[in-house]
């Protein structure tokens, strides 16, 4: 059995709220398809975002940013994710709610600097020993989670990789087993495991591999079955952010006794950043690396104050700056900490630098398709009547509330020994969990009994 050293790093979560988005879903002429790449509707906003992507690729977004304006639940974050996907799979994408900037002990300028450096990547190329092939068989051993006794977690795995010329069965430990599960690795997938770090990369699906499940329409890249040995030396491209390199260098420079205080404060010395910039410049000159401009997305931008806006305005003018995307659901409102009213709560000097893209509420057909996409992503099966009921709830209340009812409805269905959600399950779930309108009505009804 081949031994593989494991990578000690956080595992990506499966099926996050925007994990299904692959791009903007535009045709060759830049026109939005009704359903494509995980997006539904919002044709005008998607087409405008497509123009922005072209401007970025042509290097014509210097000094400019993007502002999405629209009611809650109209896909502003989804469009920001789609722009990052269109720019490339390894494009850094940093998302934050503006209020988070004020929820730590760090200075606003330090947090914003870290966010900007998290949004600029360094693509590094190097020769590595890897295991690469088509997954022929996969066996996962699970046990009770050490953190949560009520759940099970992968503890080890046995995986058989094959190419046209070779086949190997690998025994791997907990970290790699968790990656296999979280990435949804299945029979017929073409994967690569870094022998040094243990990082698992899903490259695509093998074309015509026996026993693999395929679909008429695939969002996953379809590849030929690899040739050569399973265990080989290959040039690996790794994308790290400037902030990753900052933290790595800062940790190495610290004495062992100071490590804990470093991670408590999380302040990064400016000298460390200058040293990282020098190293990256050397790598680029040597042809070992290249810069990848990423996306910094700040939601609820109206909660930023003048100091933060001034910092972002200066950052846009910098030679090395990410693509700044702001989002808000406010109209004419006061800039935080002042009595100055401004459109969207953003100073006019920054607004003049932003390309503003409006988003509109979804109609019933669009809500239905979005619910279907989310159900597929969560591997939830819906009865047609249940889908209609969820669509009705989405129209009358909100899309977010309707989508949030999917998993509670599945729990209720499973209690009735079913894996298919029926309309009665949705009705019960909607009674158990209030929407905003009913919550407000409840508060008014029992206003005298509630604390003030």
UniProtKB/TrEMBL annotation:
Protein family membership: Belongs to the RuvB family.
The enzyme's E.C. designation: 3.6.4.12
Keywords: ATP-binding, Helicase, Hydrolase, Nucleotide-binding
Short name of one Pfam family: TIP49_C
InterPro entries documented for this protein: AAA+_ATPase (IPR003593), RuvB-like (IPR027238), RuvB-like_C (IPR041048), TIP49_P-loop (IPR010339)
Domain AAA+ ATPase: 62-361
GO MF term set: ATP binding; DNA helicase activity; hydrolase activity
Organism domain of life: Archaea
Signal peptide: none
Protein name per its UniProtKB record: DNA helicase
Organism field: Saccharolobus shibatae
KW Nucleotide-binding (keyword) present: yes
Record carries keyword Cell wall biogenesis/degradation: no
């Amino acid at each position: 059995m081949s031994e593989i050293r494991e990578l000690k790093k956080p595992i990506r979560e499966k099926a996050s709220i925007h994990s299904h988005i692959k791009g903007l879903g535009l045709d060759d002429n830049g026109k939005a398809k009704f359903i494509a790449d995980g997006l539904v509707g919002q044709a005008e906003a998607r087409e405008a975002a497509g123009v922005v992507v072209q401007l970025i690729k042509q290097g014509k977004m210097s000094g400019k940013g993007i502002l999405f304006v629209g009611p809650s639940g109209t896909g502003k974050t989804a469009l920001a994710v789609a722009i990052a996907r269109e720019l490339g799979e390894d494009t850094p994408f940093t998302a934050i709610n503006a209020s988070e900037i004020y929820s730590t002990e760090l200075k606003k300028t330090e947090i914003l600097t870290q966010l900007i450096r998290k949004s600029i990547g360094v693509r590094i190329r190097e020769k590595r020993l890897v295991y690469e092939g088509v997954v022929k068989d996969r066996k996962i051993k699970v046990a009770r989670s050490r953190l949560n006794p009520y759940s099970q977690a992968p503890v080890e795995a046995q995986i058989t990789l094959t190419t046209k010329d070779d086949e190997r069965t690998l025994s791997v430990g907990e970290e790699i087993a968790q990656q296999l599960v979280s990435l949804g690795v299945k029979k017929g997938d073409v994967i690569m495991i870094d022998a040094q770090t243990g990082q698992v990369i899903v490259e695509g699906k093998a074309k015509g591999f026996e026993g693999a499940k395929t679909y008429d329409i695939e969002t996953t890249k379809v590849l030929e079955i690899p040739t050569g040995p399973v265990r080989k030396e290959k040039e690996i491209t790794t994308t790290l952010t400037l902030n990753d390199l900052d933290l790595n260098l800062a940790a190495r420079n610290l004495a062992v006794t100071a490590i804990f205080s470093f991670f408590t404060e999380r302040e990064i010395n400016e000298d460390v950043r200058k040293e990282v910039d020098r190293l990256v410049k050397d790598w680029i000159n040597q042809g070992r690396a290249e810069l990848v401009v990423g996306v910094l997305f700040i939601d609820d931008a109206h909660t930023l104050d003048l100091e933060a806006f001034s910092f972002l305005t200066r950052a846009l003018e910098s030679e090395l700056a990410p693509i700044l995307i702001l989002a808000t659901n406010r109209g004419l409102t006061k800039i935080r900490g002042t009595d100055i009213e401004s459109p969207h709560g953003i100073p006019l000097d920054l607004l003049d630098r932003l390309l503003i893209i409006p988003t509109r509420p979804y109609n019933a057909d669009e809500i239905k398709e979005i619910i279907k996409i989310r159900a597929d992503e969560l591997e939830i099966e819906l009865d047609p009547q249940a889908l209609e009921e969820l669509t009705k709830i989405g129209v009358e209340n909100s899309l977010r509330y309707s989508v949030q009812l999917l998993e509670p409805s599945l729990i209720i269905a499973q209690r009735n020994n079913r894996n298919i959600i029926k309309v009665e399950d949705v009705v019960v779930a909607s009674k158990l969990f209030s929407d905003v309108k009913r919550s407000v009505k409840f508060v008014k009804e029992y206003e005298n009994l509630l604390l003030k």
